[in-house]
Fold:
Amino acid sequence: MSRNPSSSQTKNTVYIAVFAAMIAAMGLMPPITLGIIPVPITLQTLGVMLAGALLGPWRGAMASLVVVVLAVAGLPLLSGGRGGLAVLLGPTGGYLVGWVFGSLVIGALFKYWVLRRTGNTARFLAGLASVIIGGIGVIYLCGVPWTSVATGIDFGTSLVGSAAFLPGDLFKAVVTTLVALTVHRSYRGLMS
Amino acid sequence: MIAANNTSYLALIKPGWKFGALLVLSIALYLINSWTVLLSIFIVSVVLLLTARVNFKQIRLPLISLAVILSVVFILLGIQTDWLNALRSVLRLLTMCLLAYSVSLTTKFEAMLELFQQVASPVRFVGGNPAQIALALSMTIRFIPELKKVYVEVREAQHARGLANNPLAVTVPLVIRSLRIADETAEALDARGYDSEPAAFRR
Amino acid sequence: MELPSIHLENVSVRYGDRDVLKDINISLNEQRIGVIGANGAGKSTLSRLLNGLVLPTEGSVRIGDLTTSQHAKQIRRQVGFVFQNPANQIIMPIVSDDIAFGLKNLSLPKAERTQRVNETLHELNISHLADRESHTLSGGEQQMVALASVLAMRPETIIFDEPTTMLDLRNRLAFQHEISKLSQRAIVVTHDLEILEDFERVLVITDGTVAFDGQPADAIAHYRQWSHA
Structure:
């Protein structure tokens, strides 16, 4: 079945919108608590990680950017119903900026590295490494210094503070990797 | 956080001016070191918010969570450096957030979005398409409730099978259904004559 | 009204190594045409061929002098499409904006867009939905809005792909009534056999071919017999 070729641009726009909506919907859901982790887990960054791992670098980054723009413009889309200019200017604004770059990096690593691995174990390990690098490394890299600059707290303390979210984020990284690899198996060519 | 028909004097100012003022003030706050000046600006920001006729219910929760973060910041900074420094830091952040609330709550969401689109319009010089960005933003707003519905449905279905708290059993179907929604919607856009080439999309 | 006829000549559609439609040759001239057949028989693909959403792997689909593979844009102005799932064809957050969306794609000026939106809502008796948020509509209302958004573009032909499958009985009857009132040509893919009674022509599709082509009563009889076999 040959689809009309002009529709690929349109398709990109729709994929960005639907995944942005998914990230937003995940933030509106009540956080889940897992017995082992003390801090309740909000699913929003799971959506951010998935957008990159499933849609690739630029569509993934755009999906995250759309959520950030809508939230900053005033929609209460961030977990806990937050929104407005204050979320960007406040002490945790860097994490929001980090989402965009996080999705970008995860997407690039999935597209050019993970999906070219053969063998289930190699793919899983590469996927997990990618999500950790982009979804934790990059996001914290934007968030931690921002908090430090905005509040005046030194970098080390800010880093220690963010560690409370690390177990939850690692858990989400594992989920993202498993989900993304499962979906890529049945939806081949999602990134081509 | 949306201005629900705000009727204050702040609602009459153009969003671009409010946004610009907020940006300039935010930077200025970090350049000011005198705690008395910071305190006076803080008082101004409180007065601004109080006279903006906003619905305080809308900012109760954000204010509480901000207060929690700021108390932690205050105590940490006080112990690590000195208490005057801690006060300055907290005043800055509090002022900035109160000003941001004042802008957000007196500006219509559509107006704010339009402003952002104007700010982003130079993307067309690097091959971006502002009309397509506008469409993506509208469609996202359209699909948020739809995706929420899908999420709830998937969770209920998995609950019946005892898998409601299994993240994989919930997320995989959620993603697959999102992809299907995207495919069908793209087809609907095509059928309704949407052309992603910029020329065909004139206002 | 003299409508350009739709011609399918030696049309085959292949998806990977699966033949979805095999060597179809038909001309469609009638005002009301039904398409029935089992799930997976190729009905949806056939309906999507008619406005260029799917292009044939072999052969050609012509509407008047236009070919879908070359004139997709013009053809979509003439041939509207209503999908099965009402939710996924509404694109804008507010109903009136959604109906205006297709008109914007036709590059109509704003005043005319507004006028057409109001007219169409009025024609379908859904003026009260104009300012509603799309996600608050019921399934039946959503399908009416989807029809409105197609009608506003004033196509000559409207294709319906199982438009009532996801509706309850009451909404199904209401929607069938709207289809029967249309002045446009309607080509309806459906599992609702009763809607076909006053149609002029019904095609039965089995395994990617036209197995029967004729009067509704005969077509339905053929389809029932095939289903029991």
Observations:
- Chain C has a mean pLDDT of 92.
